[in-house]
Amino acid sequence: MNDDVTRYDAWLADNGPAALVIREHLMPVEGKDGVLFPATYAAAEDKSKFSGGYNIDVFSDGTNVCLVDSVGSQANRIEPIFAEPEYAGLIPQVVVRAGNESINLLKAGHRAGDALVRCSGLQTELHEAFRAVLKGNAEPLAQITPTSLVFGVWDSRDTQAKLPRLVASTIRAFNVKKLMRSAQFVPATEYVKNGILTNPETVTEAKERTKLEKAYAERGFIHVPATGSHGGVIAEGGVRRDATLSLAALRLLSVREANGTMTSDRTQSLRRYILGLSLVALTARQSAYLRQGCNLVPDNEKPREFTLVHADGRRERIDFPHRDALIFAQAAAKAFKVGENRTVDFDTKLAEQDVKGEAAEAEKPAKGRGNRRSS
Predict the structure, then answer these.
(1) From the centroid of its chain, how far is CA 163?
(2) DSSP letter string over 167-202?
């Protein structure tokens, strides 16, 4: 067998390492003291717990940690790389035609559990693949959408099958100073003052006057101040990306026959394949652009750190180039036999049934016949 396929088998052994961890130091393109804009979040129902804005945790010693990019956001940034020419052959490319759009499943937020594909021509096949997951067999799902095994998936609207996230990545900034910003919009001319538009003050009805003033502001006809909005942060303690590949969770994946017996050869092939995809996802360089005002690049004074964490807690520093991950992934994908590319149509009737809950109702057990779902 090709050495490229077997080179990481020790990681897949029952006594193998717990995880591979990457620690990557980042900095704004403007420099370490540059301003960066973290993600903003809506307020909690109880605003006393979180009033909205930046997610900054403050500790009793006065230090703080700011969430720059969440686990879910990072997954949604990394997963689409598998549509790029260099990586596209590693997985089946599943495209759903919805109206005038053709959408790659890699861009669907809930992956195999997303409404986009759940209400498409793949509905039945995916349903059966999720039922297989409930029986401990991940192979059918890997043949359709293997990245759902890498980044995790939950079939929350149907079978309730759930697979954990193997690759988790988060970007945080430490000991941040929060900034505010203000702005003043100035129209090209004084529309009201010059008599070009009706002066709201001449409108006697208060409700109509307010409505007109609001419309002028929204459409850019009057001066509009914007004060006290989020102005980014300065990360005095630095910015860091922490990414983990859970090898312990990966080793839980298996291929099983209908009678529940695990097939060792196919299980090993599946685990190698998913390991290859996970290593590619973990080590691939990300785009520097996260959002407006948040361009982050590696801090070359602090190179990437790769740590293999063993089950007994021992930590082993290793070097793991992305090229090695890709070579292994290509060999593992060839041995596994990647599923076929698909282009299917979104089915409006299936979506209407889904909205009404008819699909879920069909899965409920009939009275006196026991639960039809296997686990």
Answers:
(1) 14
(2) EEEEEEEESEEEEEEEEEE--SS-TTTTTSS--GGG
**What's this model's pTM, rounded to 2 decimal places?**
0.85
**What backbone torsions phi and psi does residue 259 show, to the nearest 5 degrees?**
-85, 5
Residue 256 φ then ψ, to 5°: -130, 150
Please report the beta strands in 262-323, taking only residues with DSSP state E, as ranges in sequence order.
Answer: 289-291, 294-298, 305-309, 315-318
How does residue 359 score in pLDDT terms, banded at 50, 70 and 90?
low
Q: How far apart are CA 67 and CA 65, in angstroms?
A: 7
What's phi and psi for 217, nearest 5 deg?
-65, -45
Distances (CA, A) of 23 to 43, 82, 123, 266, 280: 30, 23, 39, 33, 16
The number of C-alpha atoms within 13 Å of 274 and in the hemisphere containing its C-beta is 38
The fraction of the chain above a pLDDT of 70, given in percent, is 94
For residue 358, the model assigns a pLDDT of 62
Burial-class residue 15 by CB neighbours within 10 Å (0-12, 13-18, 19+): exposed
**Cα angle 265, 261, 13; round to 5:** 45
Q: Rounded to the nearest 5°, which phi and psi values hold at 151?
A: -105, 0
CA distance 104 to 147: 12
In contact, 294 and 234? CB cutoff 8 Å: no
The closest alpha carbon to 3, from 254, 272, 284, 255, belongs to 272
User: What SS3 state is found at 41?
Assistant: strand
Phi-psi group of 53: left, alpha or beta (phi > 0 → left; psi -120 to 50 → alpha; rest → beta)? left
DSSP at 339: P
The closest of 318, 237, 229, 238 to 282, measured between CA atoms, is 318
For 280-302, give one letter per residue: b (16+ CB within 10 A) or e: bbbbbebeeebeeebbbebbeee
Given a contact cutoff of 8 angstroms between Cβ atoms, the answer to whether 39 and 293 are in contact is no
**Would you place residue 2 in the very low, low, confident or very high pLDDT band (cuts 50, 70, 90)?**
low
CA distances from 321 to 171, 279, 294, 303 (A): 21, 10, 26, 12
Three-class DSSP category at 348: helix
pLDDT tens for 40-58 read: 999 898 888 888 899 999 9
